[in-house]
């Protein structure tokens, strides 16, 4: 019988990470639930795969200018990190503050942005918006390098209010214009490169790879502005200070965090958690980690309603399966193709479709994407040569009476060790019936890759194809 403590911890690690093997789960259980929440929200040394080791095998990751190598680099971080929340929060902001390679044509700049999300993504929302506004990838993505004191460009000002902080209906068209005026002069150092790009597309010596923020006072409109009911000679910092004070901003952020870390839809019971997060937003000085702590410790998050209430995004799906299988713990050729698998499922790292990011939740699932999801995970989790799958076999053997599992125990054991995953009675019946075709499983004296182990791999493959495995 699976304890509620184990099921709750597994639920937390699916949301604040990418799921967990049983060995990882046992380590977090030893901390206690609140201790685990604190550890996840206060990451220390991630212990991820060293860059110099990766570059011995992937020369394209020395400069990280192209898309495949850069997406693979981030995958290595997600797969090998001991601080999964650091990568999960970066993934959240990458979806909310979406910038894409299609326009930037320079992945190193995007990875710099992702690194900023790791560094500041759990801190003050005010500080994060300031860093975002100075981020070269965002400046180019939303054309703020074309926003001048004598000729404003509204792109960044509009999306800052609509998509990044407040949401439609909480500001006027005049507010957008005043916001854009305040961000005039916020541009790129090395911007002269943009003028010669069409003639000479080179990164050397001071091309795109050297993009950095530059404030040009002589290009800034320092006139009086009226924004969200306040008047003054506002600069960008002042605009952000006004934005973060708004109730609509607190609610916007709390809702988006809830939808990514708790459930795709905010139910009536979920509204209480959102309200508590809004209160924490103000009481903590806009601190994101405190809002998430409020969520993770809430009665709603701990309830059965919150479990398996989100469709796993493709990145969560792929990274979670690889971490469970224990693969790619060393540099391996072919990881770029794994990144492509996520793209075929609908979520290409560093290439969101628009400034809106990805449409998530049930929209991750269509007939084509579902086939890709099931095929990928079934293949990964059925490979009995993978260290994580071998660990599952060892756990099953240790829990078996005299090394023998009946069909029910085999099905339940695989559901437990891949989650625990809660499935319907009908789904469980199918799994047990499948296991019963070959009778009891005798793991005594099993050898790597033999028929007994392959039966475990086949059961894991079938579990990966269930509806419930698609949910976090």
Describe this structure in words.
- There is one protein chain.
- With 472 residues, the protein is mainly α.
- It has helices at residues 4-15, 22-29, 33-41, 51-57, 67-80, 84-96, 101-104, 107-120, 125-133, 136-141, 155-162, 173-182, 192-196, 236-243, 247-261, 268-283, 288-296, 299-302, 314-325, 335-344, 367-381, 387-399, 407-417, 425-436, 451-464; strands spanning 186-189, 212-215, 225-227, 230-232, 404-405, 441-442.
- The protein is elongated, with a radius of gyration of 24 Å.
- The chain has two domains: 51-243, no CATH class; 314-470, no CATH class.
- The chain contains 25 helices and six strands.
- The protein is 55% helix and 4% strand.
- The strands form three sheets. It has a two-stranded antiparallel sheet. A two-stranded antiparallel sheet has the order 3-4.
- The longest helix has 16 residues, at 268-283.
Briefly, what is this?
The chain has 472 residues and is mainly alpha-helical.
Main pleated-sheet profile: 2 strands, antiparallel
Domain tally:
2
Cα-based radius of gyration, to the nearest Å? 24 Å
Strand arrangement in the largest pleated sheet: 1-2
Number of strands: 6
Anisotropy-based shape: elongated
What is the terminal-to-terminal distance? 21 Å
Q: How many DSSP H or I helices?
A: 25
Uncertain residue segments? 193-202
Strand content: under 5%
Rounded mean pLDDT is 93
Structural class designation: mainly alpha
Helix content: 40-55%
